[in-house]
């Protein structure tokens, strides 16, 4: 059976005008990041697998490098690559280091909400701090970028990925369960399993999920260590500073396993899946030291599928013999010109240059 013209499952061609919309959206998102002082880096699509810290190893396509005979992998996430750049080639640069990126990522398989295997990812990373001020900046930039792209109905879901482990370390009883079991039951909102194992203390965390103001109030009724209370204050200030809907699920960990005190997902009107996610994390140096970081990744293809990023410039057919300076002036004025290659050419345009002016067809 021939496969000419077919693509593997989860991959697709971007045709006009969607391909141009994708490029336009990437430019919009990165322009917002650049305006906030983030500088662009461009890591390679393929690296030694051992160097790819971001994303799950199960999501990566691997192959053997015919030159080095080492295992290479196509990146499934760019965040880890930016971290590698920060702690190697930019290790001597002053902190905090503000970096941004945009490019394709590839995963082994899609999922029910996001079946595509290749996606365009754009984002920003603030290396050297995960303070509340850093979190406020990163989230504000993400929201501003998505707003500039035209996304409406924005909402932010916050989570506290290390909360359960921190409470267990502070003496909250796990009963007969392990920490991993308690975390799994909380992910599944399994109150019965928690009670049966004697981990009743964690049950109220399940109810403390919802609009940020209500969730924070419920959490502050619990016997929490001072470090956690300080984080709640930081989250309250963060939520108050965002002009979008903010919710909090303190025990949600799916996809946030590498985050530390804060994780977040971004959603918008018309999108079934999240349009982005991010949070606080740690970047490791070769000498074993580490530094805090905060960042976000946005998935641009969903914005294209919503119809965002479409160009509104009008195409004008230039008949054979139109002087070059006429076309140059039209382009300078914001028109798109299409030069006819022969007389009688059927125009793929809505306008034509005729009798010294642009006329609608």
Give a structural overview.
With 361 residues, the protein is α+β, with helices and mostly antiparallel strands. The protein has 3 domains: 204 residues, 2-Layer Sandwich (BirA Bifunctional Protein, domain 2), CATH 3.30.930; 90 residues, no CATH class; 46 residues. It is built from 11 helices and 16 strands. The strands form 3 sheets. The chain has a 9-stranded mixed beta sheet. β11 and β12 form a beta hairpin. α8 packs antiparallel against α9. The longest helix is centred in the N-terminal third of the chain and has 18 residues. It is elongated and about 85 Å long. The relative contact order is 0.14.
Distance between the termini: 45 Å
Strand content: 15-25%
Number of strands: 16
Name the helix and strand elements from N-terminus to C-terminus, one letter apiece: HEEEEHEEHEHHHHEHHEEEEHEHEEE
Compute the number of structural domains.
3
* Shape designation: elongated
Average of the residue pLDDT scores: 93
| Number of alpha- plus pi-helical segments | 11
Order the strands across the largest sheet as they lie in space: 1-5-6-12-11-10-7-9-8
Give a quick precis of the structure:
The chain is an alpha+beta fold and 361 residues long. The chain has helices at 18-35, 79-87, 132-148, 163-169, 179-187, 191-196, 203-207, 212-219, 226-240, 301-305, 324-332; strands at 39-40, 46-48, 62-64, 71-74, 97-106, 118-127, 155-159, 210-211, 245-249, 263-267, 276-284, 290-299, 315-318, 336-339, 351-354, 357-360.
List keywords for this structure.
30% helix; BirA Bifunctional Protein, domain 2; nine-stranded mixed sheet; elongated; alpha+beta; four-stranded mixed sheet; 16 strands; 3 domains; 361 residues
